[in-house]
Amino acid sequence: AALFMESARKGSIVSRANSIGSTSASSVPNTDDEDSDYHQEPYKESYKDRRRRAHTQAEQKRRDAIKKGYDDLQAIVPTCEQQDFSICSQKLSKAIVLQKTIDYIQFLHKEKKKQEEEVSTLRKDVMALKIMKVNYEQIVKAHQDNPNEGKDQVSDEVKFNVFQGIMDSLFQSFNASISVTSFQELSACVFSWIEEHCKPQALRDIVIGVLHQLKSQLY
Predict the structure, then answer these.
(1) What would the pLDDT profile of 100-126 be if each residue is shown by its tens digit?
(2) Which among 4, 24, 176, 178 would be 20 to 30 A from 41, CA to CA?
(3) Where is the segment annotated Disordered (predicted)?
(4) What is 44-113's CATH number?
């Protein structure tokens, strides 16, 4: 009986120990599973972080576009090429690039205006040449239609003789009527000479006299 009671007591102690161990094991948290869940869960970015990141990317994009614009200006504008070897190692500032670009654009505007004026002048010359061409073609055509029409035409020498005769006659009266004592007297004599010797009837008589004289010399 004593052995049975001792065996029962030991069994009760073992049973209680197992029960306590089971309870303790169930009450201890599973740290391995929680660590695994913590590492697998993705980091949730806040709205403020996303906004900051988008602003940073937009700002960098804007700076890259501005830098590319200045680089393109330096490549396009000839005056942005550095001619001074003392500053060859220095990069042109943005202000200098903009000023050189403005100067070059103003130079191009002046050149454009100059070329437009030259084109306008050339167009006028072309128009005058076209008119002369038409006139000469008409003269040639008229001569071809009437080949004997120009035989009785006077020469340039005869025309000059007519002009010279008229001018000689006028100069004779002018020289006889004009006084050169003073400029005031000269001016008064010129107007008097015009009113007296340059009347239509007086000029007509001079021309008729010159023509009669040349006609008698030619025939």
Answers:
(1) 999 999 999 999 999 999 999 999 989
(2) 24
(3) 1-65
(4) 4.10.280.10
